[in-house]
């Protein structure tokens, strides 16, 4: 769903990031407001004024989206559910919640926080518009943001997973039935139905001459349909993985290197021989670091025979270590958080007893029939 992003700051210890797709939609929204919405509804202003209004309205729109996601995150943190980051992207924003709520009431409160925030913002901007001169540039911008916050809240309340309304529906069904899997299936099917409606409505718009709005509705519909499908699929997979531990699927034949060998030996006897990207470093039977080709490339070639692995290795590997008895679900979260495809499996004595890779997990899921070949 998301591609590359960059951080713009932190709020509540949450990393706030912008996906590169957001830059595209920011420009498109500003352009459409400048060339269409504002000139049509508020004619007679200079072109430069319309551009200022378009950029200001786009900024306030995405600030509103950020506040919407922050409201979800703030409530989640209060309920002891960690939030790693919030990413603004082409479809708005998404809060990266590290784990699903354990109770239906918790999910209901977290899901409701976003739409409530948007309705509150709608009310605030409506109050501001009341004190501004009707027809003025500030009035036009504030009225647009007032309207868009109401639209954002109402759209998110549609009872189709993974929209906020879909999460409200799931939490309600979950409380009634006591079955999270069944509740997610129902809510995701409703989400798929709404997505199909958007796609059909978008096609009708295209056939009726509204090309841009029609294409946008089709794109949103396709995105929601895919998100609803994968949300249920992820729940099924995570339910299965919650009973699995790292030691059951990890690779036990680990190739490690001694900390006192030279970089030249590392190149000749390990990188050229095994073709791995990195190796755990061992000293006196304990894992003391990790070395990879990036570390090697920092060393001048003529220094390879005289520089030891210990001098170039990454010594702080706590974020790349997992215990054999830890759950695979925990391992996946750690891989995602560190953007790594592997973890070192280290026992209580500090010995490297294995390596867990994303491929190991994918193979397990394929064997059990949760993924297609």
Task: Name some characteristics of this structure.
59% helix; 13 helices; alpha/beta; three-stranded mixed sheet; four-stranded mixed sheet; 373 residues; single chain; 10 strands
Q: What can you tell me about this protein's structure?
A:
By secondary structure, the protein is an alpha/beta fold. It has two domains: 5-157, no CATH class; 246-367, CBS-domain. Helix content is 59%, strand content 14%. It has 13 helices and ten strands. The protein has helices at 20-41, 47-78, 104-130, 137-156, 164-177, 180-207, 211-241, 246-249, 263-274, 293-297, 309-312, 328-338, 358-367, and strands at residues 5-11, 14-19, 83-89, 92-97, 257-258, 278-283, 286-292, 321-322, 342-346, 352-357. The strands form three sheets. It has a four-stranded mixed β-sheet with strand order 1-2-3-4. It starts with a strand and ends in a 6-residue tail after the last helix.
């Amino acid at each position: 769903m998301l591609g590359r992003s960059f951080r713009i700051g932190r709020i509540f210890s949450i990393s706030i990031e912008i996906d590169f797709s957001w830059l595209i939609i920011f420009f498109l929204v500003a352009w459409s407001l400048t060339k269409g919405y504002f000139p049509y509804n508020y004619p007679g202003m200079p072109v430069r004024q319309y551009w200022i209004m378009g950029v200001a309205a786009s900024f306030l729109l995405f600030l509103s989206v950020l506040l919407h996601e922050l409201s979800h995150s703030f409530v989640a943190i209060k309920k002891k559910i960690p939030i790693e980051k919030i990413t603004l992207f082409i479809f708005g924003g998404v809060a990266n919640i590290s784990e699903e709520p354990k109770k239906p009431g918790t999910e209901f409160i977290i899901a409701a926080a976003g739409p409530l925030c948007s309705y509150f913002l709608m009310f605030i901007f409506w109050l501001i518009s009341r004190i501004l001169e009707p027809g003025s540039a500030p009035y036009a911008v504030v009225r647009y943001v007032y309207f868009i916050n109401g639209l954002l809240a109402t759209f998110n309340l549609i009872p189709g997973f993974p929209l906020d309304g879909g999460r409200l529906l799931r939490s309600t069904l979950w409380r009634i039935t006591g079955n999270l899997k069944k509740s997610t299936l129902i809510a995701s099917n409703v989400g798929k139905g709404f997505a199909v409606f958007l796609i059909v409505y978008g096609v009708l718009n295209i056939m009726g001459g509204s090309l841009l709005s029609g294409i946008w509705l089709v794109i949103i519909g396709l995105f929601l349909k895919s998100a609803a499908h994968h949300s249920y699929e992820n729940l099924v997979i995570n339910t299965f993985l919650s009973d699995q531990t790292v030691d059951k699927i990890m690779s036990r034949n680990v190739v490690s290197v001694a900390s006192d060998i030279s970089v030249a030996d590392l190149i000749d006897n390990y990188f050229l021989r095994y073709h791995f990207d990195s190796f755990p470093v061992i000293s006196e039977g304990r894992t003391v670091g990790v070395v990879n080709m990036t570390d090697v490339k920092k060393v001048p070639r003529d220094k390879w025979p005289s520089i030891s692995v210990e001098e170039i290795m990454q010594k702080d590997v706590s974020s790349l270590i997992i215990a054999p008895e830890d759950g695979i679900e925990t391992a996946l979260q750690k891989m995602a958080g560190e953007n790594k495809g592997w973890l070192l499996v280290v026992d209580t004595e500090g010995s490297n007893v294995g390596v867990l890779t994303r491929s190991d997990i994918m193979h397990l899921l394929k064997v059990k029939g949760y993924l297609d070949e």
